[in-house]
Specification:
This protein has 124 residues and is mainly alpha-helical. The protein has 4 helices and no strands.
């Protein structure tokens, strides 16, 4: 239990950040879909802080001699995945923006044709 008292500050910071993100989700400032990955990442980091002995065992089994190197590798891997997810989301938004722009141009062309037909019908 003495190991837990060493790392409680890190676990508390993870919890505070998670609570801030949950508050932003509830106030509809963030979308739940994009935030679940980040909340999962915070949960994993919090568990690593709460259970350092098990984290050390896992890191040694994976070939890391220092726990800090394992933590850094996990953080880089997860942040890379979060970045990839953000890129996918941005790409989807971009494609949807292009499609909406094209649809708007089609609707505008139809409106212009309809107005032109109406004017020619009134003139005759």
């Amino acid at each position: 239990m003495s190991e837990l008292t060493k790392y409680w500050v890190f676990a508390a910071v993870c919890l505070v950040v998670a609570l801030v993100i949950l508050r932003l989700i509830l106030r509809e400032r963030l979308m739940l879909q994009g935030s679940v990955s980040f909340l999962s990442f915070l949960a994993v980091l919090g568990l690593m802080a709460i259970f350092p002995e098990q984290t050390t065992r896992v890191s040694r089994a994976m070939g890391f001699t220092l726990l800090s190197n394992f933590f850094f590798a996990i953080a880089v891997a997860v942040l890379s995945l979060l970045h990839l997810r953000a890129l996918v989301t941005v790409s989807k938004v971009h494609m949807r923006t292009v499609a909406l722009t094209q649809e708007l141009a089609i609707v505008q062309e139809r409106l212009d044709r309809s107005l032109a037909e109406r004017k020619s019908g009134e003139a005759a």
